[in-house]
From TrEMBL:
Residues 10-140 form the Peptidase M16 N-terminal domain. The lineage of its organism: unclassified sequences, metagenomes, organismal metagenomes. PANTHER family: METALLOPROTEASE, MITOCHONDRIAL-PROCESSING PEPTIDASE SUBUNIT ALPHA. It comes from viral metagenome. This is Peptidase M16 N-terminal domain-containing protein. Belongs to the peptidase M16 family. One of its GO terms (molecular function) is metal ion binding.
């Protein structure tokens, strides 16, 4: 499916979303989605790696790709003058793969280097542990997208072709371009990706939807304590309204700066933390709403109680109407600013399109209409669905002399919030 939105800034931006990622990978081949993403840039049937990279570099924009749990996306950003080259290059990358053992052996080394670098990344470790704190170990969303050294070494060019043929059958494409070239862009995209945009999206895959709430406390000699609270959400049907309401909730909790609800309560009023980040890690069939906190305070239980009390006020509709109006006005302003960025706009609208199986294609105006329609009841309804403390997973990392005692204290405190 192709969705075109317009700008008058001379920017040409194309994003292609593919139903491929960690949850689809066969046993023993973990990391194949990410490896395939790398290999598609190595060469095509008509261009060598050098030719591809020279053409991509010549258009003077930016290009990249990323693989996640249930999606892989590719993008090229340039100016209007290079629109035709941009479409041709995206087609070359995604429609005409040419895998060789030599290139695979070479790129495997690069990916293993990336894997090893990630092992030293505390932020990535915390990200993976947030899944461990909420999901059953057999849940496909627990698969490590980058794989392991063992599984990466097991991948062959035959495996790559088989995976490509199975999962690169349907694309969701979003383009941001000037109105005067939209007709020509649509025609060229239809010609380039005809077989990929007429195929039906993949059916919902089976994955173990069992949730397994845990409290994980790790004693690591760091200068500060890091706390991550994760609320899992199994998505049966994607809702644009709910998605945008959750974006607004994360904005109220931390995105509005020092006056956001959690930053004001934890930092400005109590001096308990330095940073708080709340965001909805939305995937196609599962989301984790995460609240990450950095602090020098060891009193983790107290901080968690302040967070849950703040959330409970949202769940019970205790947000004063005037405060809601204040945050909505701020959120509207922030969204307009964000949507003026071509990358943000394409990724956000493309994610909505992809997660809805191409059923929902909206533009900036539609987005703002939804934002303006948010009510206190919408917030309370969404919060009661998402912030289920019985499913809350907790990760705490820092100088905890007795991690098990700390974990027990957190579990005991969470009992006070059950069924609230």
């Amino acid at each position: 499916m192709i969705h075109v939105v317009n700008n008058n800034s001379g920017v040409f931006n194309i994003y292609v979303f593919v139903n491929a990622g960690g949850i689809y990978e066969p046993d023993g081949k973990l990391g194949i989605s990410h490896m395939l993403e790398h290999m598609l840039f190595k060469r095509s049937k008509h261009m060598t790696n050098e030719q591809l990279l020279k053409r991509l570099t010549r258009i003077g924009g930016s290009f990249n790709a990323a693989t996640d749990k249930d999606v892989t996306f590719y993008y090229i950003k340039t100016n209007t003058d290079n629109a035709n080259d941009c479409i041709e290059l995206m087609k070359e990358i995604l429609v005409s793969p040419n895998f060789t053992e030599k290139n695979l052996d070479s790129e495997r080394k690069v990916v293993i280097e990336e894997l090893n670098k990630g092992l030293d990344n505390d932020e990535r470790l915390l990200w993976q542990m947030s899944y461990m704190s909420t999901l059953d170990e057999n849940n496909a969303y627990m698969n490590k997208v980058i794989g392991t050294v063992k599984t990466l070494k097991a991948i062959t060019t035959k495996d790559l072709y088989a995976y490509y043929n199975s999962y690169y059958s349907s694309y969701s494409i979003i383009v941001d371009c000037e109105k005067n070239i939209e007709k020509e862009v649509r025609k060229r995209l239809n010609d380039a990706f005809k077989t990929k945009i007429t195929s039906a999206p993949r059916t919902r895959p089976y994955f173990n939807e069992e949730l397994d709430r845990k409290v994980i406390v790790m004693n690591i000699n760091l200068n500060q304590y890091t706390l991550s609270l994760s609320f899992p959400i199994v998505i049966d049907t994607f809702s644009v309204k709910e998605y945008i309401v959750l974006e607004f909730i994360s904005f109220m909790l931390s995105g509005a700066g020092l006056y956001s609800l959690l930053m004001y309560e934890l930092r400005e009023k109590r001096s308990l933390v330095y940073t708080v980040g709340a965001y909805n890690d939305c995937m196609k069939y599962l989301s984790l709403f995460k609240i990450n906190i950095a602090t020098t305070q060891q009193d983790t239980v107290h901080i968690i109680n302040v967070v849950l009390k703040t959330i409970n006020n949202l769940k019970t509709g205790s947000v004063v109407t005037e405060k809601l109006k204040f945050f909505k006005k701020s959120f509207e302003s922030a969204m307009r600013l964000n949507l003026s960025n071509a990358d943000y706009k394409c990724f956000l609208l493309g994610t909505i399109m992809f997660n809805s199986d191409n059923k929902v294609m909206i533009n900036e105006t539609d987005m703002m209409k939804v934002v303006k329609s948010i009510t206190v009841n919408d917030i309370a309804k969404c919060c009661n669905k998402v912030f289920d403390t019985d499913k809350l997973g907790v990760v705490a990392v820092g100088k905890y002399e007795n991690p098990q005692t700390q974990a027990n204290n957190i579990l005991e405190s969470l009992k006070n919030w059950q069924n609230k």
